Amino acid sequence: MGANQSIRLKSSRKQYQSCQRKNSRGSQDSGDSNVDLNLVTSNGRIFLKNSNNEYLLAVDDIEADRLHKRHHTQWHVWKSHFSSPVKTLLNLGNMNVLDVGCGPATWLMDMATEYPQSHFTGVDIVPLYPADRMPDNLTFIQANVMEDLPFEDGSFDYIYVNDLLAYFPGKCCKEQIFPDLLRLLKPGGWLEITEYERKLYETGPNTEFLMDKLSTVFHNRGASGIPVYEILPDLFQNDDDLIEFRREDKFVKYCDFQLTISEFTYVFSTLKNMILEFTSMNSAKYDEILSCACKELLKHKTSFHVTRFYAQKRTKELQLI
Ligand SMILES: C[S@@+](CC[C@H](N)C(=O)[O-])C[C@H]1O[C@@H](n2cnc3c(N)ncnc32)[C@H](O)[C@@H]1O
């Protein structure tokens, strides 16, 4: 990253937000955490730069705003907050729900409000959650999914993960993150993972060009090889602890959801410096390609694929059947 400032933090929320304030608008503070973050600023945006964490998107208030907006688009696409058959249990109450890589906790805030009798926990490596307006049944823990999460085995009835695993190498998902999620799940509980395919359909040349550069960014940040989206069905189906594997797929056309075009622009603007680092293009040329690509999304009716994968953890009784 060009003219960067590297900030190493034994990160409490307070320290993280002091970094936010230097870069954007900042906010309130709260407790400490043991997560050791190495934050890097580039063009006024904050990125993670841990030796063992190559998450490529920004982790700041601007990103939180994007994730809030995307949550609403997702609602229009799915018309539901989840696909696992847990609604009755959530209504009955006393369900322990975990959202891993919860970002600004938008999904959690909706869920905690809709199901006040159940308890919700959000985990993220950075504290993007709104500490000043958390419902009583919602807790946030700052932790790194590349390590075992700080909960006892079988702590949760339902684990939800949205748009997280694709940023990690397949090997890491297979050997660390997925097994740890299963460890945390109670027998009989449900695991639901939503991921986006890293591929667009019906694309124009500028869009293809940018998608190709995106693959290089993933490769450079250690997430090369078979994309996680493609290995997830095998992970679910080949695990002896899981039964009732299901998937729900949506093809989303950019032209049907204006916000998805802003999202495309946002993601490729965020990645601009990373892409310029390994191409001979100048900044103005990049902006022109991005602007043309956005027009192509409408013209070609470009679409993308998003899938909810979910399954239930086997109980001893279910093992006997
Ligand atoms: C694309 S965002 C999705 C956030 C949220 N699930 C949503 O759909 O709005 C991915 C999130 O993963 C978090 N993240 C990245 N690396 C992580 C790690 N190693 N451990 C925990 N969270 C991580 C980021 O901070 C970010 O909030």
UniProtKB/TrEMBL annotation:
This is 17266_t:CDS:1. Coiled coil: none annotated. Residues 97-189 form the Methyltransferase domain. Gene3D superfamilies: Vaccinia Virus protein VP39 (3.40.50.150). GO terms for molecular function: methyltransferase activity. It comes from Acaulospora morrowiae. CDD domains: AdoMet_MTases (cd02440). InterPro entries: Methyltransf_25, SAM-dependent_MTases_sf. Pfam families: Methyltransf_25. Residues 1-35 are annotated as: Disordered.
